[in-house]
Amino acid sequence: EATIEVAGLRKRFGQTMALDGMSFTVEPGQVTGFVGPNGAGKSTTMRVILGLDKADEGTALVGGRPYTGLRNPLHHVGALLDASALQPSRTARNHLLWLAHSQGLGAGRVDEVIEQVGLGSAARRRAGGFSLGMRQRLGIAAALLGDPPVLMLDEPVNGLDPEGIVWMRGLLRSLAAEGRAVLVSSHLMSELEDTAGHLVVVGRGRVIADTSVAELIATA
Ligand code: ADP
Ligand code: ADP
Predict the structure, then answer these.
(1) Strand, helix or coil at 188?
(2) What region holds the ABC transporter domain (predicted)?
């Protein structure tokens, strides 16, 4: 059963055709790499899936429903977007406690997700002083708060150092091994080829290749 289904999305911003028939599905239990150059429509697709942008045409479903029809959205899908809101004056831990509270989630998973993203020793530091890599980790912690079966991460390795990139790959693999559907965008194929079992390659608002990595290697 596909957990994200995007079909025929079209979205125009003025003269720019940001999405031009974007269609793909994301299955549970593997990492799906969403690869394409800057401006290809990856972020817009994720924003449409999350109901943050409205498509002119087409459908985007999470677990068979539109995001806006989900009763407890954070229990269904966790997302790390480029512009993930961060409360700079709060500590990392207080940011997550605030988020859990404001989203009606219990505080029970806060310390667990902090450990899961390796921010244990920084949990009581102000998030405003964090490096980009630490912010990415905090954003992922926020995405994991609701223990969602679906994750969407927009360029999660941005700002990570080489050690952080290795860590991120391991985290993505383990989230998929837990049976989650994980959609990860990157403008670099090389960032995802070792991690993704499924690749959706996009350009100019549409899919130009949709293949399993095994198939890709076999035909190379
Ligand atoms: P990607 O995530 O692959 O880099 P985006 O989805 O951010 O691509 O952008 C797709 C295209 O839509 C780009 O040309 C971008 O400039 C444009 N775009 C995205 N959001 C907006 C917006 N809010 N207003 C105008 N143009 C936008
Ligand atoms: P990415 O490359 O990861 O998509 P962007 O810089 O394109 O990041 O987008 C960041 C934010 O700016 C998004 O909310 C997007 O909708 C908006 N945006 C992108 N391009 C434009 C644009 N040309 N005009 C206005 N807003 C834009």
Answers:
(1) coil
(2) 4-220
Chain-centre distance for alpha carbon 193? 17
Does residue 83's CB lie within 6 angstroms of at least one atom of ligand 2?
Answer: yes
ipTM metric: 0.75
Separation of CA 160 and ligand 2 centre (Å): 21
49 CA → ligand 1 middle, Å: 15
Of 155, 208, 182, residue with least CA distance to 27: 182
Give the residues across from 157 on adjacent strands.
none
The pLDDT tens digits for 53-98 are 999 999 999 999 999 999 888 899 999 997 556 778 899 999 999 9
Q: Which residues of 96-112 are buried (b: 16+ CB within 10 A; e: fewer)?
A: bbebbeeeebeeebbee
What radius of gyration do the chain's Cα atoms show? 17
